[in-house]
């Protein structure tokens, strides 16, 4: 997978996560996740495909519809996805972090203020680089609980996205939007 394709796939996953957070239609979330998986498995760069075949070349890829093809085209031509930017603008990271067991509003606000991260993916990255230690009044046990929860979520998601099937598990607080079933 090319670096460009990887970036596009990551952005589509972010869109899916933000849509899920905003209670969007389940199938809409899945469409973005399936498109991301298609792009990750594409052996050639999307820009080359677009240059050779235009928007129709993108639409003809499995799981890529007209709307997502236009998002990809926007990223090719501008380096941005306005849909992602719009969703990020309406997303509240403090509320998002409260889905993590043991994290209430006050702690979520401290995490956001100190680490300046806006998504669970960014929080996971900050945790892996040891930045969670910078958050005031965050004990070792709670740090470990947050780390374990994020690891569980992202390990499970990565397993699902590599072709395994998973059902929503209420005990894990697993966001449905991240589940992908192999077709």
Write out key terms for the chains shown.
9 helices, DNA polymerase, domain 1, mainly alpha, 63% helix, 183 residues, single chain, 0% strand
Question: Can you describe this structure?
Answer:
- The chain is mainly α and 183 residues long.
- The protein is built from 9 helices and no strands.
- The chain has helices at residues 3-21, 26-40, 46-59, 66-78, 82-89, 93-97, 105-115, 120-128, 140-161.
- Helix 1 runs antiparallel to helix 2 and helix 3 packs antiparallel against helix 4 (66-78).
- The two termini are 21 Å apart.
- The model is unreliable at 157-183 (pLDDT under 50).
- CATH class membership of the largest domain: Mainly Alpha
Shape: elongated
Summarize the biggest pleated sheet.
none
How large a portion of the residues is in β-strands, by DSSP E? Answer: under 5%
Judging by the overall fold, what is the CATH architecture of the largest domain?
A: Orthogonal Bundle
**Structural class assignment:** mainly alpha
The percent of residues in helical segments reads 55-70%
Can you tell me the CATH superfamily of the largest domain? Answer: DNA polymerase beta, N-terminal domain-like
Strands, helices and their partners?
Blueprint: H1 3-21, H2 26-40, H3 46-59, H4 66-78, H5 82-89, H6 93-97, H7 105-115, H8 120-128, H9 140-161
Helix pairs in contact: 1-2, 1-5, 3-4, 8-9
Task: Describe what is shown at a glance.
This protein has 183 residues and is mostly helical. It has helices spanning 3-21, 26-40, 46-59, 66-78, 82-89, 93-97, 105-115, 120-128, 140-161.
């Amino acid at each position: 997978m090319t670096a460009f394709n990887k970036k596009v796939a990551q952005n589509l996953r972010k869109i899916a996560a933000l849509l899920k957070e905003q209670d969007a239609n389940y199938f809409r979330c899945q469409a973005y996740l399936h498109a991301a998986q298609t792009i990750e498995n594409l052996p050639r760069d999307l820009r080359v495909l677009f240059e050779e075949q235009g928007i129709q070349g993108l639409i003809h890829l499995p799981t890529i519809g007209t709307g997502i093809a236009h998002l990809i085209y926007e990223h090719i031509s501008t380096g941005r996805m306005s849909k992602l930017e719009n969703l990020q603008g309406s997303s509240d990271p403090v509320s998002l972090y409260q889905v993590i067991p043991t994290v209430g509003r006050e702690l979520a606000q401290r995490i956001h203020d100190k680490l300046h991260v806006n998504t669970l993916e960014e929080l996971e990255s900050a945790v892996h680089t040891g930045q969670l230690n910078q958050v005031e009044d965050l004990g070792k046990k709670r740090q470990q609980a947050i780390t374990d929860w994020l690891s569980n979520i992202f390990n499970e998601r990565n397993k699902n996205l590599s072709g395994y099937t998973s059902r929503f598990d209420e005990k894990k607080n697993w966001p449905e939007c991240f589940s992908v079933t192999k077709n």
